[in-house]
Amino acid sequence: MKLISKMTHGLRGEIDIPGDKSISHRSIMLSSLGNTPVEVTNFLKGADCLSTIACMRAMGVDIEEHETRILVIGRGLHGLKEPNDVLDAGNSGTTLRLLLGLLSPQKFVTTFTGDNSLRQRPMGRVITPLSMMGANIVGRNQNKNLPITIIGTRVKEQGSRLKGITYKMPVASAQVKSAIILAGLYADGMTTIVEPYPSRDHTEKMLAAFGVRIDKSSNEIRVTPASEVTAPKSIEVPGDISSAAYWIVLASILEGSNVTIKNVGINETRTGIIDVMRNMGAKIEYINERISGGERSADIHVVSSQLHGTTFGGEMIPRLIDEIPIIAVAAAFAEGDTVINDVGELRVKETDRLNAIVDEYNKIAAGAFETTEDSLIIHGSHKFNYAKSKTYDDHRMAMSLAVFGAAAEGVEIDNPDCVNISYPTFYDVIADK
Ligand code: S3P
Q: Looking at the structure, do residues 87 and 171 belong to the same domain, yes or no?
């Protein structure tokens, strides 16, 4: 249990944000495929990214860790080795889904497992398109859950390859898109992916920096197969906007706040939170904008403001998919109602986040949160109570509840350590401010 007290003053000063989780995963996977060493800086040493490191090491990749600086000695596009045990993706959907794509075209067999949450999450969405490419993947039951075994295409016949496909994705998911892109690198012929709405494009951006040809037009991504990749010498990971989101919201709703959040990635496919918070009346400014490692970043300055309700959905959702639990907190402090549509995907995240929000947030603001099958309605300006809330072992629920409690009347949360998945120093920031 962890007690978060009501904060009696605004959030002030500067906050350093740990490295971006999505980019950290990709930096390890892609660097493993090069033939030259890559130095990754500001790597996120969260449990999810450490699962990716462990999986790549199990396939023979030499990875040195020096605090947040990681040195990856790649083995080349065809150099991964058969792991001699089951790979454990832990809580990490990104590790598992991207590696399903990367390992389908290999010349060995891999079996994955994961934690209790990951074992329940749907993997059919990745297995279906990979199987269309000729991948041989078997999962547990019809939902294709973990444990999952991939029999690499080149196991049986030397030289047999996946085939390039055109795939129209039913849901906008960067994990599914990235899995298909990684498989497409090894395919015979071009692979074209059509997304319903653009999702985060870190895989595409980083692959371009590895010399891979990826073409984009509106919602279509075309992957040209590669015979090798040329690794850059270094990759600088920007701070994670999904982690900065907690402070953006806390500073907006706490009176007397004036904070600068340093070095945050502001890739357009991730900045939905900024657009929505500004629409709600938040005072957010980018300062010191720059490009690092092919990604835009900036310091983000936030001062307190009176928020008002808003309505959004559709193409905005993939741009803030992980921030909905914290945006819901902001909405509880806003004047009027907020309606968030098209959020059914939240039911298949680390926990069913729509149910978790209704069950746990209503303990803090009774009756403020309602859901339908795929929307979330928040009635703003409620009376707040001190509460004991459950995190369901979901890092983003834990951090959102902590911010909610800090801005309301305090909260006690169970399993607080789940924040280690994406933000191991989260509570230090709250304690320090
Ligand atoms: C991620 C994509 C998103 C996001 C997850 C990280 C990624 O998932 O929720 O935390 O790194 O590609 P989906 O692509 O399934 O929406």
A: yes
